[in-house]
Amino acid sequence: MVAPAVALAAASAASRRSWRRLFRWRAPGSRAPCRPVCTARGLPGGNEYDLLVIGGGSGGLACAKEAADFGKKVAIMDYVVPSPRGTSWGLGGTCVNVGCIPKKLMHQAALLGGALEDAHHYGWDVAPSAPHNWQQMATAVQNHIKSLNWGHRVQLQERNVKYFNIHGSFVDDHTVRGFTKAGKETLVTADHIVLATGGRPRYPEDVEGAKEYGITSDDLFWLKKSPGKTLVVGASYVSLECAGFLTGFGLDTTVMMRSIPLRGFDQQMALLVTDYMESHGTKFLKYCTMRKLEKFEDQRLQVTWHNHEVGREETGVFDTVMWAVGRVPETRHLNLEKVGVTLHPDSQKILVSASEATSVAHIYAIGDITEGRPELTPTAIMAGKLLARRLFGHSAELMDYDNVATTVFTPLEYGCVGLSEEEAERRYGQEGIEVYHAYYKPLEFTVTERDSSQCYIKMVCLRGEDQRILGLHFLGPNAGEVIQGFALGIKCGATYSQMKKTVGIHPTSAEEVTKLWITKRSGLPATVTGC
Amino acid sequence: MVLDFVKPSPLGTSWGLGGTCVNVGCIPKKLMHQAALLGQALKDSRKFGWEYEEQVKHNWETMTEAIQNHICSLNWGYRVTLREKSVTYANSYGEFVEHHKIKATNRKGQETFYTAGKFVIATGERPRYLGIPGDKEYCITSDDLFSLPYCPGKTLVVGASYVALECAGFLAGIGLNVTVMVRSILLRGFDQEIAEKIGAYMELNGVKFLRKYIPVKIQLLEEGTPGRLKVVAQSTEGSETVEEEYNTVLLAIGRDSCTRKMGLEKVGVKINEKTGKIPVNDEEQTNVPYIYAIGDVLEDKPELTPVAIRAGKLLARRLFGGRLEKCDYINVPTTVFTPLEYGCCGLSEEKAMELYKKDNIEVYHTFFWPLEWTVAGREDNTCFGKIICNKRDDNRVIGFHVLGPSAGEVTQGFAAAMKCGLTKQLLDDTIGIHPTCGEIFTTMEITKSSGLTISQKGC
Predict the structure, then answer these.
(1) For residue A43, is pLDDT > 70?
(2) How far is CA A260 from CA A263, A264, A270, in A?
(3) Share of chain B above pLDDT 90, in %
(4) Residues A331, A308 within the same domain
(5) Which residues of this UniProt protein bind FAD (chain A) (predicted)?
(6) Which end of chain A is more exposed for a tag (fewer CB within 10 A), N or C?
(7) Which CATH number does B2-127+256-321 carry?
(8) Residue B307: its pLDDT value, please?
(9) Mutate to test the interface with A, among B31, B420, B423, B427 (most CBs of A within 10 A)
(10) Does residue A156 carry a pLDDT above 60?
(11) Nearest CA to A94 among A105, A106, A103, A85?
(12) What's residue B54's pLDDT?
């Protein structure tokens, strides 16, 4: 359903189009001299491409490739504005270059450090700890990313999708102009345009030295040298995941949080996540806000912050300060006001309908740039594919953004699907829900005597005969693998009794989900014992 | 009252309360598998920047001691739980002497008699021997392996069961020289395409396979811990024989029910004379109304701990709790913890074709490369996922198969989804968690019938 404001904007854009006479410059590189050419605009068939995608990330690439598979003429623009530190990267977007992929690989590196410690207990004759070489790991991770950049280039080529490494912005609602790194201007016209430019990390506005001396996740994964003693500012999953693996490498790591961790996630689970991190070496500065960042002559950073708990300013010295205080959508440079694409006033994200349409009829948006959507790769990919199918494949299928599963890859992983307990309570009341839970101990932790105090599962169900599952939360090893199948179950409308009928696979951690029986309401202790 | 008694193995191994799973099955198996996985993790970790000496040795005694300590704590835990619930426990061997009466003989040979209104037989199984010269004297089985006080050394594993492959897998993973002798196919009863992939992966990673051979004689060359054994094996396809020397021979050719010597004939309980298994109705009742049976002794039921646990609980609730729920044996998931793990739920491709016919099923499949394997430089186009759908029933998922890391964790949730009537459409509509292995099932597009290649090219 398109909001009234959006519908109005679409109408006015259409009327502007019918009165406009437009000029098109030939693309640079052609032999004929550049001269303006009048072209009938706004009519299908008058544009160079059927589809132009702006943004070569998860959503953009999926959309472009799917459209090309329908035989359409597709172009994609991707451009990475270097970070304030100068970091840049190739085709593939956030996920491939500075998100999911390097994050999970570094998380894996940290887990392998833990495996080294475990191995000792299982009879391997290796010292329980070993030094970690950041450069070797980073090079390996960066090489893998580059192979993915290359793979995407090849996939586009195979489908005859034209790739422009230019920074595009609207000239009019069917024309996008961009400049290459060398400064050459290109104009691209298309019947349909999909915006998928994603987001970039936010820098705090009110902290002196933030941009000059701090880095973000954009830079962390491309550092050639170890970040050393690091302060990660923020309580987002980005902050906790990064702090988690940095601690795993043996680096002195501190997380500074203004208030609660993992806002928007189930808070009981969020606290278990941070509890685990705290008892495994990550330091936390809670209820603190940054004041300023200064650099010493020896390149170390002097950090000043306000500690709200004790009500005074404190300082510390770090090698690296990383901001993980949220992300801003990449909408500012697109010149959206020119074509009338409306943004959400607070978030500055693009407002879209259920069919991913913006306020301008033939302009769409998908992925992190859109308001009210999960900022996840798989949702962007599916949104892109379904959009292409609706535009070119006679499909009517819309995205279902409900019950999207996700996993936070902190040292103890947290996988979840559906509602948090708070949200379920808000919707149905405490009396309307039944929460089953259990603390469990993964078998592999026994021999190593690992602390499993935070290994915990919680299933939030509707109360009553049906006991449909509203949300499932799992904290433990391989959380992503555990949750994926259960997300399918929830898609099928799974109930608690169906879960109970499912026989467990033994010995796994996932089977504990099928064995849940203690309710929070009963007040019984929730620790599972036995085989 | 619970009677539990472990007849020592031919080599004298015995253990405490808890049964096969706790003492000589799932638990020690998974822990030794974990030890082997950690060996692989050590290798991977160097690619991720961890610096330590290249050659790392494994100490068998350290591992078994740690594992046995954990098992002892579980034995103890069970004793405590029974006490807490006022269940009488006797460490005695039970046999029926007449209706409603059993004789319990303890280790010292003292006999006590008990009567009860109802009986549940849950005596499980023990490993089978070959019946060739030297087998009982010199070979070990899974009963002995997990508490072996010395490293088994160069080992021959006889058999193609999941027990054989799992044990061969972790023994090779801790650095031992391992050969598997297989009479015919691997993992009979499991999906054969996947069984062959499991074997191929093990072979690629150092396990030797002697296919289509059976041992005919085991001779002792030298006593020791371990000793030296000579094995003579005969080809199943001709008259060739091979001889080879090993430190240890581990037999894993199957398990026999412990039903033969407990006086069942005295009370008229019918058993399958050939297999020793007990047929029961859908309420786990034998042909004698007051005698029930659960677990590995049952005919045509999965030999799995969680199934036995569930059957036992539901039986007790029906007998004494006024409940009606029966154990649901359909779509029971399981996992084979070979070096490359295999999780499955539902039908194998062969079984699906047999039950539904080729034209009525659609098989979707894909290779996948776990992200963690990329930097580690491990094989691409090896991990594999397959789902089998019933075209005549809304493309209902009737078989789920995954070959890759953490297969058990991946499979569990999908088993729950299958219980809820999972279809291919629902899989396609569900958004995956990224980056994981499990997400591949939400984006499977290529069918076997299309003939398209599933080799991955990257990303």
Answers:
(1) no
(2) 6, 10, 9
(3) 97
(4) no
(5) 104, 168, 368
(6) N
(7) 3.50.50.60
(8) 95
(9) B420
(10) yes
(11) A103
(12) 76
